[in-house]
Design a protein that fits this description.
Length: 406
Protein backbone atom coordinates (compact mmCIF):
# COMPACT_ATOMS: atom_id res chain seq x y z
CA UNK A 1 0.00 0.00 0.00
CA UNK A 2 1.57 3.34 -1.01
CA UNK A 3 2.17 5.89 1.76
CA UNK A 4 -0.29 8.64 2.63
CA UNK A 5 0.78 11.74 0.75
CA UNK A 6 1.62 9.84 -2.44
CA UNK A 7 -0.91 11.91 -4.41
CA UNK A 8 0.67 15.19 -3.36
CA UNK A 9 0.86 17.71 -6.16
CA UNK A 10 -1.81 15.91 -8.16
CA UNK A 11 -4.85 17.96 -9.23
CA UNK A 12 -7.93 15.75 -9.03
CA UNK A 13 -11.40 16.87 -10.10
CA UNK A 14 -14.13 14.93 -8.30
CA UNK A 15 -17.49 15.03 -10.07
CA UNK A 16 -20.51 14.28 -7.92
CA UNK A 17 -23.80 13.52 -9.67
CA UNK A 18 -27.30 13.15 -8.29
CA UNK A 19 -27.75 9.84 -6.53
CA UNK A 20 -28.18 8.80 -2.93
CA UNK A 21 -24.52 7.65 -2.94
CA UNK A 22 -23.50 11.32 -3.24
CA UNK A 23 -23.00 11.27 0.54
CA UNK A 24 -20.13 8.78 0.01
CA UNK A 25 -18.41 11.25 -2.32
CA UNK A 26 -17.65 13.27 0.80
CA UNK A 27 -15.50 10.39 2.08
CA UNK A 28 -13.86 9.92 -1.37
CA UNK A 29 -12.84 13.60 -1.35
CA UNK A 30 -11.54 13.37 2.21
CA UNK A 31 -9.40 10.30 1.38
CA UNK A 32 -7.96 12.01 -1.72
CA UNK A 33 -7.16 15.17 0.29
CA UNK A 34 -5.56 13.04 3.04
CA UNK A 35 -3.42 11.36 0.36
CA UNK A 36 -2.07 14.80 -0.57
CA UNK A 37 -4.11 15.61 -3.70
CA UNK A 38 -5.53 19.03 -4.54
CA UNK A 39 -9.22 18.17 -4.91
CA UNK A 40 -11.52 20.38 -6.98
CA UNK A 41 -15.15 19.28 -6.56
CA UNK A 42 -17.93 19.66 -9.12
CA UNK A 43 -21.56 18.98 -8.28
CA UNK A 44 -24.36 18.56 -10.80
CA UNK A 45 -27.62 20.39 -9.99
CA UNK A 46 -29.19 17.06 -8.97
CA UNK A 47 -26.31 16.28 -6.59
CA UNK A 48 -27.31 19.36 -4.60
CA UNK A 49 -30.56 17.58 -3.74
CA UNK A 50 -28.54 14.97 -1.84
CA UNK A 51 -25.66 16.81 -0.15
CA UNK A 52 -24.91 20.41 0.71
CA UNK A 53 -22.34 22.47 -1.19
CA UNK A 54 -20.86 23.65 2.12
CA UNK A 55 -19.86 20.10 3.06
CA UNK A 56 -17.77 19.54 -0.06
CA UNK A 57 -16.37 23.08 -0.12
CA UNK A 58 -15.25 22.73 3.51
CA UNK A 59 -13.27 19.54 3.10
CA UNK A 60 -11.95 19.89 -0.46
CA UNK A 61 -9.05 22.06 -1.59
CA UNK A 62 -11.23 24.69 -3.26
CA UNK A 63 -14.91 25.71 -3.20
CA UNK A 64 -17.32 23.48 -5.05
CA UNK A 65 -18.08 24.30 -8.71
CA UNK A 66 -21.66 23.87 -9.84
CA UNK A 67 -22.28 25.84 -12.99
CA UNK A 68 -20.79 26.76 -16.34
CA UNK A 69 -22.03 30.32 -15.79
CA UNK A 70 -21.71 31.38 -12.14
CA UNK A 71 -18.10 30.39 -11.52
CA UNK A 72 -15.39 32.85 -10.51
CA UNK A 73 -13.39 31.87 -13.63
CA UNK A 74 -15.05 32.56 -17.00
CA UNK A 75 -14.66 29.12 -18.59
CA UNK A 76 -14.49 26.73 -15.64
CA UNK A 77 -14.86 23.52 -17.66
CA UNK A 78 -11.72 24.14 -19.73
CA UNK A 79 -9.77 25.40 -16.71
CA UNK A 80 -10.69 22.32 -14.68
CA UNK A 81 -10.36 19.92 -17.63
CA UNK A 82 -6.92 21.23 -18.59
CA UNK A 83 -5.55 21.39 -15.04
CA UNK A 84 -6.76 17.93 -14.03
CA UNK A 85 -4.30 15.09 -13.65
CA UNK A 86 -7.32 12.88 -13.05
CA UNK A 87 -11.10 13.18 -12.97
CA UNK A 88 -13.09 10.89 -10.68
CA UNK A 89 -16.87 10.75 -11.11
CA UNK A 90 -18.43 9.34 -7.94
CA UNK A 91 -21.25 8.55 -7.95
CA UNK A 92 -21.90 8.45 -11.71
CA UNK A 93 -25.61 8.23 -12.49
CA UNK A 94 -27.06 6.58 -15.60
CA UNK A 95 -27.69 10.10 -16.99
CA UNK A 96 -24.11 11.31 -16.56
CA UNK A 97 -22.76 8.06 -18.04
CA UNK A 98 -25.10 8.43 -21.04
CA UNK A 99 -24.22 12.10 -21.58
CA UNK A 100 -20.48 11.37 -21.33
CA UNK A 101 -20.75 8.41 -23.74
CA UNK A 102 -22.70 10.56 -26.20
CA UNK A 103 -20.30 13.50 -25.90
CA UNK A 104 -23.00 15.80 -24.53
CA UNK A 105 -21.92 18.70 -22.35
CA UNK A 106 -25.11 19.96 -20.75
CA UNK A 107 -23.73 20.82 -17.32
CA UNK A 108 -20.34 21.72 -15.81
CA UNK A 109 -19.43 18.10 -15.01
CA UNK A 110 -20.13 16.67 -18.45
CA UNK A 111 -18.55 19.74 -20.13
CA UNK A 112 -15.39 19.20 -18.05
CA UNK A 113 -15.32 15.50 -18.98
CA UNK A 114 -15.41 16.42 -22.66
CA UNK A 115 -12.80 19.17 -22.17
CA UNK A 116 -10.05 16.99 -20.72
CA UNK A 117 -7.33 14.62 -21.91
CA UNK A 118 -6.68 13.47 -18.34
CA UNK A 119 -7.54 9.91 -17.34
CA UNK A 120 -11.08 9.51 -16.03
CA UNK A 121 -12.34 7.10 -13.36
CA UNK A 122 -16.11 6.58 -13.47
CA UNK A 123 -17.78 4.99 -10.44
CA UNK A 124 -21.39 4.11 -11.31
CA UNK A 125 -24.10 3.84 -8.68
CA UNK A 126 -27.75 3.11 -9.44
CA UNK A 127 -30.52 0.57 -8.94
CA UNK A 128 -29.82 -2.95 -10.22
CA UNK A 129 -32.47 -2.71 -12.97
CA UNK A 130 -30.84 0.46 -14.30
CA UNK A 131 -27.30 -0.97 -14.07
CA UNK A 132 -28.42 -4.03 -16.04
CA UNK A 133 -30.38 -2.07 -18.67
CA UNK A 134 -28.93 -2.63 -22.17
CA UNK A 135 -28.60 1.14 -22.70
CA UNK A 136 -26.46 1.53 -19.58
CA UNK A 137 -24.42 -1.60 -20.43
CA UNK A 138 -23.81 -0.17 -23.89
CA UNK A 139 -22.79 3.25 -22.59
CA UNK A 140 -20.41 1.75 -20.02
CA UNK A 141 -18.88 -0.47 -22.74
CA UNK A 142 -18.44 2.63 -24.95
CA UNK A 143 -16.62 4.48 -22.16
CA UNK A 144 -14.42 1.42 -21.47
CA UNK A 145 -13.52 1.13 -25.14
CA UNK A 146 -12.30 4.76 -24.97
CA UNK A 147 -10.01 3.96 -22.06
CA UNK A 148 -12.21 5.29 -19.27
CA UNK A 149 -11.60 3.39 -16.03
CA UNK A 150 -14.78 1.95 -14.55
CA UNK A 151 -14.96 1.08 -10.85
CA UNK A 152 -17.73 -1.51 -10.87
CA UNK A 153 -20.58 -1.02 -8.38
CA UNK A 154 -20.90 -3.54 -5.59
CA UNK A 155 -23.67 -5.80 -4.32
CA UNK A 156 -25.53 -4.57 -1.26
CA UNK A 157 -28.29 -2.39 0.09
CA UNK A 158 -29.65 0.20 -2.33
CA UNK A 159 -31.88 3.24 -1.91
CA UNK A 160 -35.31 2.31 -0.57
CA UNK A 161 -33.97 -0.84 1.13
CA UNK A 162 -33.66 -2.97 -2.03
CA UNK A 163 -30.73 -5.37 -2.27
CA UNK A 164 -28.67 -6.00 -5.39
CA UNK A 165 -25.81 -4.81 -7.57
CA UNK A 166 -25.50 -1.08 -8.05
CA UNK A 167 -24.13 0.25 -4.78
CA UNK A 168 -21.24 2.68 -5.18
CA UNK A 169 -17.86 0.99 -4.62
CA UNK A 170 -16.27 1.64 -1.23
CA UNK A 171 -14.38 4.99 -1.02
CA UNK A 172 -11.15 3.05 -0.29
CA UNK A 173 -11.62 1.09 -3.55
CA UNK A 174 -12.08 4.36 -5.46
CA UNK A 175 -8.95 5.82 -3.81
CA UNK A 176 -6.97 2.68 -4.76
CA UNK A 177 -8.10 3.01 -8.40
CA UNK A 178 -7.10 6.71 -8.44
CA UNK A 179 -3.66 5.74 -7.12
CA UNK A 180 -3.33 2.91 -9.66
CA UNK A 181 -4.24 5.17 -12.58
CA UNK A 182 -1.86 7.93 -11.46
CA UNK A 183 1.02 5.60 -10.60
CA UNK A 184 4.07 6.52 -12.68
CA UNK A 185 4.55 4.10 -15.55
CA UNK A 186 7.75 2.17 -15.20
CA UNK A 187 6.50 -0.49 -17.51
CA UNK A 188 8.93 -2.58 -19.52
CA UNK A 189 6.37 -2.20 -22.31
CA UNK A 190 7.03 1.55 -22.66
CA UNK A 191 8.04 2.27 -26.29
CA UNK A 192 7.83 -1.42 -27.23
CA UNK A 193 5.84 -2.54 -30.25
CA UNK A 194 3.00 -4.77 -29.07
CA UNK A 195 0.76 -6.51 -31.61
CA UNK A 196 -2.63 -7.75 -30.42
CA UNK A 197 -5.30 -9.66 -32.34
CA UNK A 198 -8.95 -9.59 -31.30
CA UNK A 199 -12.38 -10.87 -32.25
CA UNK A 200 -13.66 -13.86 -34.19
CA UNK A 201 -12.83 -14.20 -37.88
CA UNK A 202 -15.65 -14.50 -40.43
CA UNK A 203 -15.15 -17.01 -43.22
CA UNK A 204 -17.43 -16.58 -46.26
CA UNK A 205 -19.52 -19.48 -47.55
CA UNK A 206 -21.02 -17.50 -50.41
CA UNK A 207 -21.63 -13.82 -51.18
CA UNK A 208 -23.83 -13.29 -48.10
CA UNK A 209 -23.19 -16.06 -45.57
CA UNK A 210 -20.27 -16.57 -43.20
CA UNK A 211 -19.04 -19.08 -40.62
CA UNK A 212 -17.94 -17.33 -37.45
CA UNK A 213 -17.72 -17.83 -33.68
CA UNK A 214 -18.94 -16.14 -30.51
CA UNK A 215 -15.82 -14.06 -29.78
CA UNK A 216 -16.70 -10.38 -29.13
CA UNK A 217 -13.17 -8.97 -29.21
CA UNK A 218 -13.57 -7.38 -25.76
CA UNK A 219 -10.60 -9.18 -24.17
CA UNK A 220 -8.25 -8.35 -27.03
CA UNK A 221 -9.32 -4.71 -27.03
CA UNK A 222 -8.83 -4.53 -23.25
CA UNK A 223 -5.29 -5.87 -23.67
CA UNK A 224 -4.53 -3.38 -26.44
CA UNK A 225 -5.85 -0.47 -24.35
CA UNK A 226 -3.88 -1.54 -21.27
CA UNK A 227 -0.68 -1.98 -23.30
CA UNK A 228 -1.14 1.56 -24.68
CA UNK A 229 -1.71 2.85 -21.13
CA UNK A 230 1.65 1.31 -20.21
CA UNK A 231 3.31 3.29 -22.98
CA UNK A 232 3.55 0.63 -25.69
CA UNK A 233 3.11 1.36 -29.37
CA UNK A 234 0.20 -0.95 -30.13
CA UNK A 235 -1.03 -2.45 -33.38
CA UNK A 236 -4.48 -4.00 -32.93
CA UNK A 237 -5.61 -6.38 -35.67
CA UNK A 238 -9.30 -6.89 -35.06
CA UNK A 239 -12.63 -7.97 -36.49
CA UNK A 240 -14.50 -6.00 -33.79
CA UNK A 241 -15.85 -2.48 -34.01
CA UNK A 242 -14.91 -0.79 -30.72
CA UNK A 243 -13.33 2.65 -30.90
CA UNK A 244 -9.57 2.66 -30.34
CA UNK A 245 -7.88 4.66 -27.57
CA UNK A 246 -4.88 6.94 -28.24
CA UNK A 247 -1.71 4.90 -28.78
CA UNK A 248 -3.53 2.03 -30.51
CA UNK A 249 -3.43 1.83 -34.28
CA UNK A 250 -6.16 -0.41 -35.63
CA UNK A 251 -6.11 -2.71 -38.64
CA UNK A 252 -9.60 -4.06 -39.37
CA UNK A 253 -9.84 -7.52 -40.91
CA UNK A 254 -12.51 -10.10 -41.56
CA UNK A 255 -11.06 -13.49 -42.46
CA UNK A 256 -8.26 -15.68 -41.05
CA UNK A 257 -6.27 -15.03 -44.24
CA UNK A 258 -6.57 -11.24 -43.83
CA UNK A 259 -5.66 -11.54 -40.16
CA UNK A 260 -2.59 -13.64 -40.99
CA UNK A 261 -1.38 -11.13 -43.55
CA UNK A 262 -1.84 -8.16 -41.15
CA UNK A 263 -0.29 -9.99 -38.19
CA UNK A 264 2.70 -11.27 -40.18
CA UNK A 265 3.41 -7.73 -41.40
CA UNK A 266 3.13 -6.20 -37.93
CA UNK A 267 5.01 -9.06 -36.21
CA UNK A 268 8.14 -8.33 -38.26
CA UNK A 269 8.86 -5.36 -35.95
CA UNK A 270 7.00 -6.58 -32.84
CA UNK A 271 8.54 -7.14 -29.43
CA UNK A 272 5.37 -8.87 -28.28
CA UNK A 273 2.53 -10.58 -30.16
CA UNK A 274 -0.64 -11.48 -28.26
CA UNK A 275 -3.06 -13.64 -30.24
CA UNK A 276 -6.32 -13.08 -28.41
CA UNK A 277 -8.42 -13.57 -31.56
CA UNK A 278 -10.58 -16.63 -32.06
CA UNK A 279 -9.22 -17.44 -35.50
CA UNK A 280 -11.32 -19.90 -37.49
CA UNK A 281 -9.61 -23.27 -37.65
CA UNK A 282 -11.52 -24.19 -40.84
CA UNK A 283 -12.91 -22.24 -43.77
CA UNK A 284 -15.29 -23.16 -46.62
CA UNK A 285 -13.73 -24.10 -49.91
CA UNK A 286 -14.46 -23.08 -52.57
CA UNK A 287 -16.41 -19.89 -51.75
CA UNK A 288 -19.55 -19.92 -53.90
CA UNK A 289 -19.80 -17.05 -56.33
CA UNK A 290 -22.96 -15.00 -55.74
CA UNK A 291 -25.64 -16.19 -53.31
CA UNK A 292 -26.56 -19.83 -52.87
CA UNK A 293 -30.29 -20.06 -53.71
CA UNK A 294 -32.78 -22.30 -51.87
CA UNK A 295 -34.08 -23.75 -55.11
CA UNK A 296 -30.61 -25.16 -55.81
CA UNK A 297 -31.13 -27.53 -52.86
CA UNK A 298 -29.27 -27.91 -49.53
CA UNK A 299 -25.59 -27.24 -50.19
CA UNK A 300 -22.72 -29.31 -48.83
CA UNK A 301 -20.13 -27.05 -47.28
CA UNK A 302 -16.62 -28.44 -47.58
CA UNK A 303 -14.04 -27.04 -45.17
CA UNK A 304 -10.28 -26.78 -45.33
CA UNK A 305 -7.91 -25.91 -42.45
CA UNK A 306 -6.73 -22.31 -42.14
CA UNK A 307 -3.04 -21.61 -41.57
CA UNK A 308 -2.21 -21.45 -37.85
CA UNK A 309 -0.97 -17.85 -37.53
CA UNK A 310 0.49 -18.31 -34.07
CA UNK A 311 2.29 -21.56 -34.92
CA UNK A 312 3.82 -19.72 -37.90
CA UNK A 313 5.03 -16.92 -35.61
CA UNK A 314 6.39 -19.50 -33.15
CA UNK A 315 8.38 -21.21 -35.90
CA UNK A 316 9.89 -17.88 -36.99
CA UNK A 317 10.29 -16.35 -33.52
CA UNK A 318 13.12 -13.84 -33.10
CA UNK A 319 15.33 -13.96 -29.98
CA UNK A 320 13.71 -11.83 -27.27
CA UNK A 321 10.30 -11.72 -28.94
CA UNK A 322 7.46 -12.75 -26.62
CA UNK A 323 4.56 -14.73 -28.08
CA UNK A 324 1.27 -15.16 -26.25
CA UNK A 325 -1.52 -17.54 -27.27
CA UNK A 326 -5.02 -17.94 -25.93
CA UNK A 327 -6.71 -21.28 -25.43
CA UNK A 328 -10.47 -21.60 -25.05
CA UNK A 329 -11.04 -24.96 -23.42
CA UNK A 330 -13.89 -26.91 -21.88
CA UNK A 331 -11.73 -29.56 -20.14
CA UNK A 332 -8.10 -30.33 -19.15
CA UNK A 333 -7.36 -26.60 -19.09
CA UNK A 334 -3.77 -26.61 -17.88
CA UNK A 335 -2.63 -29.77 -19.72
CA UNK A 336 -4.00 -28.49 -23.04
CA UNK A 337 -2.42 -25.07 -22.42
CA UNK A 338 0.97 -26.63 -21.65
CA UNK A 339 0.84 -28.69 -24.80
CA UNK A 340 0.01 -25.55 -26.90
CA UNK A 341 2.89 -23.70 -25.20
CA UNK A 342 5.32 -26.40 -26.32
CA UNK A 343 3.89 -27.16 -29.79
CA UNK A 344 3.65 -23.56 -30.93
CA UNK A 345 6.92 -22.39 -29.29
CA UNK A 346 5.10 -19.82 -27.13
CA UNK A 347 6.15 -17.96 -23.99
CA UNK A 348 2.70 -17.66 -22.45
CA UNK A 349 -0.66 -19.36 -22.93
CA UNK A 350 -3.75 -17.75 -21.40
CA UNK A 351 -6.32 -20.49 -20.95
CA UNK A 352 -9.95 -20.01 -20.07
CA UNK A 353 -12.62 -22.59 -19.34
CA UNK A 354 -15.43 -21.27 -21.54
CA UNK A 355 -17.92 -23.76 -20.04
CA UNK A 356 -17.93 -21.67 -16.81
CA UNK A 357 -20.52 -18.89 -16.29
CA UNK A 358 -19.42 -15.30 -17.13
CA UNK A 359 -16.12 -16.57 -18.62
CA UNK A 360 -14.80 -15.82 -22.10
CA UNK A 361 -16.80 -15.19 -25.27
CA UNK A 362 -19.05 -12.15 -25.21
CA UNK A 363 -18.86 -11.45 -21.47
CA UNK A 364 -17.39 -8.36 -19.79
CA UNK A 365 -15.66 -10.68 -17.34
CA UNK A 366 -13.16 -13.51 -17.64
CA UNK A 367 -11.34 -16.03 -15.45
CA UNK A 368 -8.06 -17.38 -16.81
CA UNK A 369 -5.07 -19.51 -15.99
CA UNK A 370 -1.79 -18.03 -17.22
CA UNK A 371 0.64 -20.78 -18.17
CA UNK A 372 4.34 -20.05 -18.75
CA UNK A 373 7.43 -22.25 -18.86
CA UNK A 374 7.96 -21.37 -15.20
CA UNK A 375 4.53 -22.30 -13.86
CA UNK A 376 0.85 -21.44 -13.79
CA UNK A 377 -1.18 -18.76 -12.06
CA UNK A 378 -4.97 -18.67 -11.79
CA UNK A 379 -6.73 -15.31 -12.15
CA UNK A 380 -10.23 -15.55 -10.64
CA UNK A 381 -13.31 -13.98 -12.28
CA UNK A 382 -12.66 -10.27 -12.91
CA UNK A 383 -13.50 -7.65 -15.51
CA UNK A 384 -11.53 -8.02 -18.74
CA UNK A 385 -9.41 -4.92 -18.02
CA UNK A 386 -8.13 -6.55 -14.83
CA UNK A 387 -7.42 -9.79 -16.69
CA UNK A 388 -5.60 -7.72 -19.35
CA UNK A 389 -3.39 -6.20 -16.63
CA UNK A 390 -2.46 -9.67 -15.34
CA UNK A 391 -1.65 -10.91 -18.85
CA UNK A 392 0.60 -7.88 -19.46
CA UNK A 393 2.28 -8.29 -16.05
CA UNK A 394 3.17 -11.79 -17.20
CA UNK A 395 4.41 -10.45 -20.57
CA UNK A 396 6.61 -7.92 -18.74
CA UNK A 397 8.06 -10.72 -16.60
CA UNK A 398 8.92 -12.63 -19.80
CA UNK A 399 10.62 -9.70 -21.55
CA UNK A 400 14.34 -10.20 -21.09
CA UNK A 401 15.92 -7.25 -19.24
CA UNK A 402 18.79 -7.08 -21.73
CA UNK A 403 16.23 -6.52 -24.49
CA UNK A 404 14.92 -3.35 -22.82
CA UNK A 405 14.94 -0.16 -24.80
CA UNK A 406 17.04 2.64 -23.35
N1 LIG B 1 -4.75 -19.35 -33.68
C1 LIG B 1 -4.08 -18.87 -34.77
N2 LIG B 1 -4.41 -19.29 -36.02
C2 LIG B 1 -5.39 -20.19 -36.20
C3 LIG B 1 -6.07 -20.72 -35.08
C4 LIG B 1 -5.73 -20.26 -33.82
O1 LIG B 1 -3.19 -18.04 -34.61
N3 LIG B 1 -5.70 -20.58 -37.43
C5 LIG B 1 -4.37 -18.87 -32.33
C6 LIG B 1 -5.48 -18.20 -31.57
O2 LIG B 1 -5.45 -16.79 -31.77
C7 LIG B 1 -5.14 -18.55 -30.11
C8 LIG B 1 -4.49 -19.89 -30.24
O3 LIG B 1 -4.02 -19.99 -31.58
O4 LIG B 1 -4.18 -17.67 -29.58
C9 LIG B 1 -5.48 -20.99 -30.03
O5 LIG B 1 -4.79 -22.19 -30.23
P1 LIG B 1 -5.49 -23.42 -30.92
O6 LIG B 1 -4.55 -24.60 -30.82
O7 LIG B 1 -5.99 -23.11 -32.27
O8 LIG B 1 -6.66 -23.59 -29.96
P2 LIG B 1 -8.01 -24.06 -30.36
O9 LIG B 1 -8.55 -23.29 -31.51
O10 LIG B 1 -8.81 -24.04 -29.11
O11 LIG B 1 -7.59 -25.50 -30.87
P3 LIG B 1 -8.18 -26.87 -30.43
O12 LIG B 1 -9.54 -26.84 -31.02
O13 LIG B 1 -7.25 -27.82 -31.07
O14 LIG B 1 -8.14 -26.87 -28.94
Amino acid sequence: MPNAGDLSGRFIVVGVSGGIAAYKAVEVCRLLVDAGAHVAPIMTPDAERFIGKTTLSALCSEPVHTSLWDDASPIPHTRLGQRADLIVVAPATARVIAAYAAGMSDDLLTATLIATVAPVVVCPAMHTEMWEHPAVRHNVATLRSRGVHIVEPEDGRLAGGDMGRGRLAAPETILAEARRVLAPTQSKLAARHVVVSAGGTREPIDAVRVITNRSSGKQGHAIANEAARRGAKVTLVTTADFLPVPGVSVVRVETAAEMKSAIDTAAASADVVIMTAAVADFRPVPIAEGKWKKHDGVPSVVLEPTPDILAGLGAAKRPGQVLVGFAAETSNLVDNAKSKLAHKNLDIVVANDVSQPKVGFGHDTNAVTIVTKLGTSAIPLADKRTVAAHVLDSVEASLHPTQEHP
